Request: fold
Amino acid sequence: MRILGIDPGYAILGWGILDLKGNKFSVVDYGAVTTDSKMEMPLRLQHIYTELSAIIEEYRPDEAAIEELFFNNNAKTAIMVGQARGVAILACVNGRLSISEYTPLQIKQALVGYGRADKKQIQSMVKVILNLKEVPKPDDTADAVAAAICHGHSRGSRQR
Reply:
């Protein structure tokens, strides 16, 4: 199974593609879609959609895992991230992917076994699980890969 993990954002949207065979993950590719802060929001959303659609077309994942929005105190930022998340979901739906959504707590639990783990712990586990020389950068990319790992673990436990 090929999984697309997504960490939604409007400045940086992290993505990662992993293959899962049995209980072993292998990295296909990962990266980030970035937008210029000087761009108008509609154009930023269009860029995210276009780039993510191209990634889906190129790598042909079977399923997608996307992090749910963590609402902080800044409502404007939350709304803008929510718009980018909606565009990412649309790209996945148009790419005919089934989509699973995970809270940050679920992702942390799946990777570290502790829902309040910090970013460094998550990044270390991404590196270890995938046998990487270094943590994927930027942080949004590591978070996207973590979402894909979470989905693989969750999917496996649902099938057992």
Notes: DSSP finds five helices and five strands in the chain. The first helix runs from residue 41 to 59.
